[in-house]
Design goal:
The chain is α+β, with helices and mostly antiparallel strands and 419 residues long. The chain has two domains: 2-19 and 232-418, Alpha-beta prism (UDP-n-acetylglucosamine1-carboxyvinyl-transferase, Chain); 22-229, UDP-n-acetylglucosamine1-carboxyvinyl-transferase, Chain, CATH 3.65.10. Helix content is 32%, strand content 26%. Helix 12 links the parallel strand 21 (365-367) and strand 22. Helix 1 packs parallel to helix 7 and helix 12 packs across helix 13 (393-399). The longest helix has 13 residues, at 234-246. The radius of gyration is 21 Å and the shape is globular. Bound molecules: uridine-diphosphate-N-acetylglucosamine. Residues 23, 26, 93-94, 121-127, 161, 163-166, 187, 305-306, 328 line the site of uridine-diphosphate-N-acetylglucosamine.
């Protein structure tokens, strides 16, 4: 078992370079199944969710070459099975994208029911509704999903809820369908635009990604033979921005798209942090105790649920009482119990949590309950008095590349220990 040990009370100072976006990469990798050819992907984050995605692709017959730790070439000319490794697909959430992509490529696929962070009920009814609208039959039985289609034909799909996964998945299934698919009430997250840009680079015809109506004109074939670079990770950038505020530090965050960070920037300014926006990098600093703020998580461009725990750390030490309203995931407040072990005063009730700001946090052994909770606990350890131990690192490693090295370069006293 591994743990992180952090000696706290360090203001983070210096520069950090943001990796490619996890949530874009785990969709672009399955999207390569739609190509009957070879493509190269740059700025791939070297994280465990990406490695599992690659393993699944390899088991389906793809040939993957790692050119560097952040660049891969994928040859999808020989996809030779329609059963994805069930144990691997159950390991993480984004394996549902194999369904949309393989429906397009082979008209058939069986995968294990997707796993991922335990953030509450994570239904896939909107994915299934979209596949069925295009003519597929989908069965969910004994923890597996089996989808088949003799032929996919474009159709109108109205999303009953704004869903990142369903929007991307229906887009994947529509790329090689006959005719035009229109997704109405689509999600608008930056990684949706990135997946659409990737597919268009390979020969797809997708318009409107980033708005709530996406139109996909089916094409006969995706050609490949191109190189694509994954968009910078908005959530990783936001994590370091909030770490700068919480630790009263000063960080220049490089390789990010500051337009994607506007909801976070606004809240940082509201609590008394300062921001200088350079377009592809952003400097964030704070020289005072943060003030209170109220947050409601929303789909993009609202405040992202994936930065809610990191913001929670800032509010746990803010002056006054703050409220966070979580509108996406019902179990997203699990981290508050861990922060309370460190002296925070947080009361979580259903979809809301009340943060009575304390002067400081103290060290304690804590458990990362999910990926973003883990990032929040690292920030908490960096600002706390004493030596904090963080367990369950597998969650953190799913989504953050070289996280302790990046924090160490900013001055954090953090080490990984094997027990
Ligand atoms: C993605 C992100 C995750 C992020 C989330 C919300 C990936 C791999 N993961 O997850 O990090 O927290 O977006 O920004 O990109 N819903 C339904 N039916 C469905 C699908 C979703 O009711 O068929 C509901 C969910 O329960 C949730 C909301 O819609 O309340 C949003 O979920 P969704 O956007 O689909 O999240 P994911 O794609 O799973």
């Amino acid at each position: 078992m591994e743990k992180l040990v952090i000696t706290g009370q360090t203001p983070l100072k210096g520069e950090v370079t943001i990796s490619g976006a996890k949530n874009a990469a785990v969709a672009i990798l399955p999207a390569t199944l739609l190509i009957d050819g070879v493509c190269t992907i740059e700025n791939i984050p070297n994280i465990s969710d990406v490695k599992i995605s690659c393993e699944i692709l390899e088991k389906l017959g793809a040939k993957i070459t790692w050119n560097t730790p952040n660049e891969i070439t994928i040859d999808t000319r020989n996809i030779n099975t329609t059963v994805a490794p069930l144990d691997l697909t159950r390991k993480f959430r984004a394996s549902y994208y194999i369904v949309g992509a393989m429906l397009g490529r082979k008209g058939k696929i069986q995968v294990g029911m997707p796993g991922g962070c335990k953030l509450g009920a994570r239904p896939i009814d909107q994915h299934i509704k979209g596949f069925e609208a295009l003519g597929a039959t989908v069965e969910v039985e004994k923890g597996n999903i089996t989808a088949t289609a003799d032929k996919l034909v474009g159709n109108s799909v109205y999303m009953d809820v704004v869903s990142v996964g369903a929007t991307i998945n229906v887009m994947l299934s529509a790329v090689l369908a006959e005719g035009t698919t229109v997704i109405d009430n689509a999600a608008k997250e930056p990684h949706i635009v990135d997946v659409a840009n990737f597919l268009n680079t390979m020969g797809a015809d997708i318009r409107g990604a980033g708005t709530d109506i996406i139109k996909i004109n089916g094409v006969k074939k995706l050609s490949g033979n191109s190189t694509y670079s994954v968009v910078p990770d908005q959530i990783e950038a936001g994590t370091f921005m909030l770490a700068a505020v919480a630790s009263k530090g000063d960080i220049l965050i490089k390789n990010c798209i500051t337009k994607h960070l506007e909801s976070i920037t606004a809240k940082i300014i509201e609590v008394g942090g300062q921001v200088e926006d350079y377009g592809d990098s952003i400097r964030v600093w704070c020289d005072r105790r943060p003030g209170k703020a109220n947050i409601k998580t929303l789909p993009y461009p609202g405040f992202p649920t994936d930065l809610q725990p990191q913001m929670g750390v800032v509010l746990s030490i803010a002056e006054g009482t703050s409220i966070i309203n979580e509108s996406i995931w019902e179990s997203r407040f699990q981290y508050t119990e861990e922060l309370n072990k460190m002296g925070a005063k947080i009361t979580a009730q259903g979809k809301s949590a009340f943060f009575e700001g304390v002067d400081k946090l103290y060290s304690a052994p804590v458990y990362s309950t999910d990926l973003r909770a883990g990032a929040a606990l690292i920030i908490a350890g960096i600002i706390a008095e004493g030596e904090t131990e963080i367990y369950n690192l597998e969650h953190i490693d799913r989504g953050y590349e070289n996280i302790e090295e990046k924090f160490r370069n900013l001055g954090a006293k953090i080490k990984r220990i094997k027990e």
